Amino acid sequence: MSSRTDRRGIYVDQAALLCRKGCSFYGNSTWGGLCSQCWREENHKSRAKQIEEDLALAKRLQREEEAAYANSNQGENSSARQSKPEEKKNSHKSHTVQTGKKFLQTIAKTTLGRDANVSSQAAPTTSVNQQPVAESDQATRQFIDYLKTLQKPGRDIFKQCHSFCHSVAYKKDLSAEDLSESVQDFYQNLSERLHNLYKGSPDRVEEVMDEVEKYLTLQLYEKAFCPESADDERKDLTIQKRIRALHWVTVQMLGAPLKEESPVVSDSLDKAITDIIEMDSKRVPRDKLAYVTRCSKHIFNAIKCSKRLAASADDFLPTLIYVVLRANPPRLQSNIQYITRFCNPKRLMSGEDGYYFTNLCCAMAFIEKLDAQSLNLSPEEFELYMSDQASPDRPQARGVSLPSSSAPRTGPKVDRPENDLIDWRDGAEASVQDVLEGLHLDSCAPSTSAIDSDNVDNPSQTHFKAKATVISGNPNIFSGEDVQLDCIVPDEPSPGWIFQWFHNDVPISANKVYHIKNARIQQSGDYTCQGRKLFKIWPYTRIANLSDPVKIHIDGGWVLLRTASESLITEGPMTLTCHIRDDPLLVNAIFYKDGIKIKTQNSNDLVFPSLSTEDNGIYSCTATWVKNLIYQSAQSLAFPVTVLERLETPRLVLVPDQDQVRIGTNVVFRCITKVNDKEQGLTVEYYYIKDDNRLAPASTTDTFIISRVNEEDTGNYVCKVYVRALKIERWSNVLQLTVLPF
Question: Where is the composition biased (Polar residues) (predicted)?
Fold first, then answer.
């Protein structure tokens, strides 16, 4: 008899996480359950064997052709004259021998090329050239700025990386696997050289490898992410469709110990969902992994606050699956494959990043193979839910018998190895426990931004919101320059507030004004602030919620493009300034939009008197100046310009997002829009229309409810928004609602 107690829920054997060769590193399904190190060893053995077989075949073919050629020469010497057909035959044999030699030479060159880090080819087309030039330049400049701190080794590293990028970019028809193998070989060889160079300093080696990974992947991103040679895009669509079909899966079915009704738990889950979605916006594998880790830590915090106990590994995977199902992250398969192929392998083999990423791979595998037994449902229930004839929170279709999910089921439990997801063994490995013990989880105290039924009566929770602004300098500055930020609470300007500043969500200062002096590139990012005010009488404390972020960009180059306007609105002005470090004497400035030259002038400022949405685009500038009687020139990084409409086009949505509902359901429409105008307090009027018929008089609320719908409510719905003071109206998308009978 097993000593382990049967539990409901989703658990994974430690063997499903670790390398199947028992090396104690984390494995990956893409590598057949091996870690990157073991997979490379196996792959190199297989490749070496294939090359050896190809060489043997080439040599055998060459010997046969040379023998045939020798026999033909003997026949030629014995015959004084040779007919034309025989000449053609011998000519063909000679050509065949040369072909065999060329084949042998090709095999040898291929062998050498695979082992070399850099190959020089003269193909004119590169994927690097297909990337935005400014983005590639930015990655290069930041990489160079970092390598300057390494002095001579830095120059050698840059030369190797730069040559490798161009050698890969010049290769045509390079498969995803071949590109990944080339990058991983480069990582391995460079890491070995760095370990010899920085003996006894593994942290320095890891730091350099992180910067190398960032440079390489930014340079090769267009070629490496979701390449045409792979079927990542098809798999993305498949998993997205699968997750949409599983919208009915509940926390209870997965066995995740969550109390979603708690505002703290709900807030942690929302943050986890946001982070797993934000992963797609990052272009560096390390940055994508960082968002997986952030998501996972929010999950552990949600579990901790639900159980009021320390979170365990047993609860993590089912909760991660639930978060993925709720988030339906964009291009999930492509992101996982991109990380697997191009991340520094050391990061995936151990540590918290490797642990969380391995669990994410397991979660996706579970979702792909999820069936009735996985959720402790009958096959009939599962099919009804999947076909949307019924769901756990609403009645089934008329005439359909739905078995009780709580009824006991007979029959042996089937353990299927292809699921890769079976009961978790009671003794978790030390590597997993190290990850859990190293977690620094948030407090389970209610979030200051959570305003709901649980805390609305608490006077310390307010609708005040802090505001962060730039009061000196510019959000876009050169390294070495200064910028000052100020935090205020516009709705409560009286003194007495205590402020806290954050840089990329990390607390940095408790002053009202935050001064960035002698700025460094690493200080770029989002700056937010929050306020707290103490009273001598009840409620003693008032909280001002977190401000919107102020984005600070610190440039290490010679030229940058910037604007003094905080917001760009249609019909308003904009001035783009081509700013040069140290303000030398300008000769001329050339301005570009989306890579096309738009104007050359002898002043730094390009003025747009009245903006329109057609002015949206990616801008840059090239400046030429004189310094110490020497002409110099440089190009700025890309500067995105987004012009907002004074009244944004509304978006009509259903809450929840279901365009097919049953008779008797309450349907809620939301008309989402925003007024972007300097004039405050403008009133928006909302109109709701069905099949060209207005449903109700104009209102000032963005919500329209139809109580207990019937079949007559089936139709096409739109909303119109109107701002009378601006005399502007906008129409939404058409939303089709279908009311189904029971």
Answer: 70-82, 117-135
Contacts of residue 469, Cβ cutoff 8 Å, sequence gap at least 6: 485, 486, 488, 550, 566
- Contact yes or no for 616/574 (Cβ under 8 A): no
The pLDDT assigned to 439 comes to 52
- Token pair, residue 326, equals 């709720």
Contact residues for 307 (Cβ-Cβ < 8 A; gap 6+): 257, 315
Tokens of 174: 């390079």
* Distance in angstroms (rounded) separating the CA atoms of residues 289 and 335: 10
pLDDT value at residue 618: 93
Looking at residue 21, its pLDDT comes to 65
**Number of neighbours of residue 78 by Cβ within 10 angstroms:** 7
Query: Domain 231-391+419-437 carries which CATH code?
Result: 1.20.1050.80
Which residues of the chain fall short of a pLDDT of 70?
Answer: 1-62, 64-66, 68-136, 350, 393-463, 535-541, 566
CATH class of 127-170+174-224: mainly alpha
For 259, other C-beta atoms within 10 Å of its C-beta total 15
Whether the CB-CB separation of 259 and 322 falls below 8 Å is answered with no
Cα 645 to Cα 669: distance, rounded to the nearest angstrom: 23
Sign for the CA dihedral angle at 650, 651, 652, 655 comes to: negative
3-state helix, strand, coil in the chain (%, to 5): 40, 20, 35
Beta bridge partners of 394: 391
Using an 8 Å Cβ cutoff, are 533 and 492 in contact?
Answer: yes
Provide the pLDDT for residue 448: 39
DSSP 44-99: HHHHHHHHHHHHHHHHHHHHHHHHHHHHHHHHHHH-S---HHHHHHHHHHHHHHHH
CATH code that applies to domain 467-641? 2.60.40.10
Q: Where are the domains of the chain?
A: 36-115, 127-170+174-224, 231-391+419-437, 467-641, 651-740
119: Cβ contacts below 8 Å, ≥ 6 apart: 113, 167, 171
268, 298 in Cβ contact below 8 A?
Answer: yes
**Phi, psi dihedral angles at 134 (to 5 degrees):** -65, -40
CA distance 186 to 117: 6
The strand pairing partners of 622, in sequence order, are 590, 635
At which residue do the structure tokens 């943050």 appear? Answer: 271
Please report the pLDDT score of residue 12 as a whole number: 53
Query: Measured over all CA atoms, what is the biggest interatomic distance in the chain, rounded to whole angstroms?
Result: 123
| pLDDT score for 273 | 92
DSSP code at position 627? E
Identical fold, 467-641 and 651-740: yes
Q: What is the 3-state secondary structure (H, E, C) of 539-593?
A: CCEEEEECCCCEEEEEECCCEEEEECCCCCECCCCEEEEEEECCCCEEEEEEEEE
Question: What is the per-residue pLDDT for 593?
Answer: 94
CA distance 500 to 512: 8
Beta strands in 594-666 (DSSP E): 596-601, 605-608, 617-627, 630-635, 639-641, 651-655, 660-662
**pLDDT for 414:** 34
Chain centroid to CA 8: 33
Name the residue among 350, 25, 341, 23 with its Cα closest to residue 185.
Answer: 341
**Long-range pairs of 195-199 with CB within 8 A, sequence gap ≥ 24:** 197/153
Q: What is the pLDDT of residues 516-551, one digit of tens each?
A: 999 999 899 999 999 888 765 554 567 788 898 999
How far is residue 665's CA from residue 471's CA, in Å, rounded to a whole number?
52
Contacts 24+ apart (CB under 8 A), 84-92: none
